[in-house]
Structure formats: C-alpha cells, structure tokens
Amino acid sequence: MQTSEPLIPLGRLKKRAEFLRVRDGRVWRSRSLVLQARRRPDGVRSSSDMTRFGFTATKRLGNAVTRNRARRRLKETVRLVARSHARAGYDYVVIARQGALTQPFEHVQKELLQALEGIHKDKRSRA
User: How many domains does the chain have?
Assistant: First the structure.
C-alpha cells in the first residue's frame, strides 16, 4: 500500500493509567474490535508526532491462547493499516471482540480502517 503521505511512527501504551485515560475519549465499535481514541495532552513525555496503540482482550473472549491469538491478529492489522491512517498525537486502544478471531483477516483490516476514519469524523456530521 503506497501513499504519498509520510508514515507515522507507532508506539505502545503499556501502563494502566494510559489505557484508562484513553477510555474517556471517542469510541468506535465493530464486529471484530472496539477502537478507543483520545488526543494526547501536550504535557505527556512521548513524542507529539508519534501515535501510540494499546491492545487488550477480556477473559470473556476465551482462554489465554485465544486472547493472545486475537491480540496478535489485531497488532498485525494495526501494523499494516495504522501507519498511513492514524493521526499523530493520538493514543488508541484496540479491544478484541469475537470477530477478531472468526472474521477473515482482510475484513478485520477493513473494519480497523473504517474505525480510524469514523472516529475522527466531526460529531455533527454523524447525524
């Protein structure tokens, strides 16, 4: 996938406080994933041009092997899609749903792309 736009460097959310802060942002739900996004405040140490992602899967999804498989699929999806479609200065949390395991990989990629586009649309244009 070649684009003329510069690719955004991706980082990782690792601390619980970072995940909780993003939870209060905007949310997009689909069959395969839930995407939460929030603009990072200027005071955060991370580089302002970097986009950070966090991944999670709840125990409702299944045992550890199942949850890890779902997270791996979502991480690869983010690696392929987000560099060219995520916004710099934002933190995202991707929560795995059952569709992340059962849907074809291309469909999961399409849902993440739609989520990234939809989450940044103006609230007034959604009506």
Answer: 1
